[in-house]
Amino acid sequence: MLKFMFKASSLSWAMAVVLVLGLSGTTEAKSPPTVTKLVTLDPAVGELPESITTDDDGHVFFSLVNGQIRELLPNNSTVTIATVPVPAGGNMIGIKVGPDGLIYTTTASFSVTQPAAFVWRTDPDTGIVEKFATLDHNGFPNDMAFEDDGSFFVTDSFLGRLYHIDASGNATVAVSDPLLRGNPADQAFPTHDFGVNGIAWDQAEQNLYVSVTDFGRIVRIPFNCRGLGRPKVVAETPRLKGIDGIALDRNGTIYAAVNTQYLIATVDHRGSVSVYAQSALFDSPSAVAFGGTRRDKKTAYIANFAINSVLAGVTPHPAILSMPVPVPGADLH
Question: Is 21 exposed, middle or buried (0-12, 13-18, 19+ CB in 10 A)?
Answer without folding.
Answer: exposed
